[in-house]
Specification:
Helix content: 25-40%
Shape: elongated
Structural class: alpha+beta
Mean pLDDT: 81
Number of helices: 6
Low-confidence stretches: 361-369, 390-401
Length: 401
């Protein structure tokens, strides 16, 4: 019994010593370690106001800024480490007051330090340099991270489009994102919740986009609801084809909504879509160059409304989870079938333009939330990847006789 007590006492002393050394080391050098990791992995300078490790293992970071990202605070609680698969286990990670800026120019989307042609080129150079530094007998041991609960609160994402005559801004604000059972780098099944408000030059739309469900990237399974509600038809008028612009159709006010479910099994994805239109108001005929377009749209909406409270159009699409792609031709055919019994002038041009409208709707209302969720996931993966760079262990050479 005495030997067991002594053994346990020694273990406790060792653990206390290691814990003290780790706390002292992280509190003394943690800021430099993280800043250097960001610099060497992503090629951008990082500013960190404070980094501290509190008892037992609670990491706190304040005012982290690098590239186009600013994070007011990060708190993470380490609860364990699995030495057999080199996995850190975190019970909770909370990040708040996050600001992100994205820009689109003639070269494409720019999001430092993750997306953009210059970013890709810089990353390629960095990877080649790192590869050149590697000794020939190196085996990489990747470190993974499992987070039971990951919360990102009060996020502001500002998108600046520099391809227009005048720069256009779109803001997604008051964003809340929650993940459960999130694993990096090998994504397994995880749960996600997303809520955001939108603001453009023409409209402010609170709590307009929500996503709730789960994804399993490894096995290509998912069950995710994505809803967009109260989207002003004027909000994204700068991105509509000429035919579909509000003043071309004589629409003074209208709000679009979408209820959707993305359900995939073994990469076979079924997408259920329900579009609806609320609070439609039309311009006076005297303000319209071609009033027949307004009459046609009004007839279509009345036909889709029927005996319901508002116009509704629903359809089901079949595609793949990876790569994700919606067939605009199917949307066009579904719309044609939905208005087949309607009689109105200008029908030929409307049907001809439905494909353009479906393409725009897909990009703005369907793919934007999907890409938004994916972007958040990719950004989280990228940030986690900074501090989980593969460790290098020397591989023993075979003995020579």
């Amino acid at each position: 019994m005495k030997k067991i007590t002594i053994f346990l006492l020694i273990i406790m002393i060792l653990l206390a010593t290691v814990s003290t050394v780790v706390h002292v080391y992280v509190n003394a050098y943690g800021k430099d370690i993280l800043a250097n990791a960001i610099k060497s992995n992503l090629g951008v300078e990082a500013e960190i106001k404070e980094l501290s490790l509190r008892f037992p293992f609670e990491l706190q970071i304040k005012e982290l800024e690098f590239g186009d990202i600013y994070v007011g605070s990060i708190e993470a609680s380490l609860v364990g480490f699995n030495p057999f698969i080199l996995q850190c286990i975190l019970s909770e990670v909370l990040a708040e007051n996050i600001e992100v800026q994205l820009r689109r120019n003639e070269s494409g989307l720019v999001f430092e330090p993750f997306v953009g042609k210059e970013v890709d080129a810089r990353r390629k150079v960095a990877q080649e340099k790192e590869k050149a530094k590697e000794p020939p007998h190196i085996k990489k041991m990747p470190l993974s991270v499992r987070v039971a609960k990951l919360e990102l609160n009060n996020i502001l994402v500002e998108f600046i489009d520099l391809t227009k005559e005048e720069p256009k801004k779109i803001k997604a604000y008051d964003i809340t994102t929650r993940f459960r059972d999130f694993v990096y780098p090998q994504l397994s099944k995880f749960y996600v919740y997303f809520d955001a408000s939108l603001e453009t030059e023409y409209a402010t739309m609170e709590d307009s986009i929500q996503a709730d469900g789960w994804m399993d990237y490894s096995n290509k399974n998912m069950d995710l609801d994505i809803n967009a509600g109260g989207i002003s038809y004027w909000a994204f008028t700068d991105y509509y084809p000429p035919f579909w612009k509000p003043d071309s159709l004589g629409i003074k006010k209208a709000f679009l909504s979408l209820e959707s479910n993305f359900n995939s099994k073994d990469n076979d994805l079924t997408v259920d879509l329900v579009f609806s239109v609320d609070e439609v108001e039309y311009m006076g005929v005297e303000y319209l160059e071609d009033p027949s377009r307004m009459y046609t749209i009004r007839t279509i909406l009345e036909f889709l409304k029927g005996d319901r409270a508002k116009p509704v159009f629903s359809t089901t699409l079949k595609t793949k989870m990876d790569p994700f792609k919606l067939d605009v031709e199917v949307l066009q055919k579904s719309f044609e079938d939905a208005v087949k019994g309607a009689r109105f002038d200008y029908m030929g041009e409307v049907i001809k333009k439905v494909k353009e409208g479906a393409e725009g709707t897909r990009k703005i209302i369907i793919e934007a939330p999907v890409e938004g969720v994916k972007s958040v996931v990719d950004a989280v993966k990228g940030i986690i990847g900074i501090i989980t760079k593969p460790k290098e262990t020397e591989k023993q050479e075979p003995s020579q006789n």
